[in-house]
Amino acid sequence: MANKKKEWFDWLKALLLALGLALVVRMFLFSPIVVDGPSMLPTLHDKDQMIVNKIGYKIGEPERFDIVVFHASAQKDFIKRVIGLPGEHVAVKDEVLYINGEPVEEPFLSEQKRNLGPYQTLTNDFTLEELPGEFTTIPEGHVLVLGDNRGNSTDSRMLGVISMDQIVGKASLIYWPLDRMRIVGE
């Protein structure tokens, strides 16, 4: 009888340890997110399920074109692409991204730009000064984010620059649906 109690107690310890470890991993290292809406098309699709790396930005900074998840409000997280970094000036003119006055290629938009009709635009012209906050350069501890589906995205053009404190982590792996499983942002 004592042997059965010990075995039961060992199973309980293992279960509690597994639950505790899962909680730590989810809270501090990785968590799942489901893409909600078309704002990152064609890169990410509505209902894509992804893993968010929460620890990467605790030891490093976001890089241009990283896909990040951030708290847009207390109830809602958004997923967008980092376009501008601290200290930079960002503008878009005639479908060209300019960082500090220099054109920067956005390879993830190439196909969308090729498919534009003669009087269509993918990204309406803007400068950093025209965005909420009216900054001349992106402040330290902030980034500028845009959705890949520029005509249907609530991003820094409406929200202003995003504080690093709002960023949950980098979204880099689609794990569902299986036919879309891949690493993104590479």
UniProtKB/TrEMBL annotation:
Keywords of the record, alphabetical order, are: Hydrolase, Protease
Task: Indicate the segments forming the Peptidase S26 domain, all copies.
Answer: 9-176
Where does this protein come from, organism-wise? Oceanobacillus caeni
Q: How does it sit in the membrane?
A: Single-pass type II membrane protein
Q: EC?
A: 3.4.21.89
Quote any Pfam family the record assigns: Peptidase_S26
Q: Is Hydrolase included in the keywords of this UniProt record?
A: yes
Task: Tell me what reaction this enzyme catalyses.
Answer: Cleavage of hydrophobic, N-terminal signal or leader sequences from secreted and periplasmic proteins
Q: Which InterPro entries match?
A: LexA/Signal_pep-like_sf, Pept_S26A_signal_pept_1, Pept_S26A_signal_pept_1_CS, Pept_S26A_signal_pept_1_Lys-AS, Peptidase_S26
Hydrolase as a keyword of this entry, yes or no, is: yes
The protein here is known as Signal peptidase I
Q: Mostly located where?
A: membrane
PANTHER family reported in the protein's UniProt record: SIGNAL PEPTIDASE I (PTHR43390)
Family of this protein: Belongs to the peptidase S26 family.
The residue ranges crossing the membrane are none
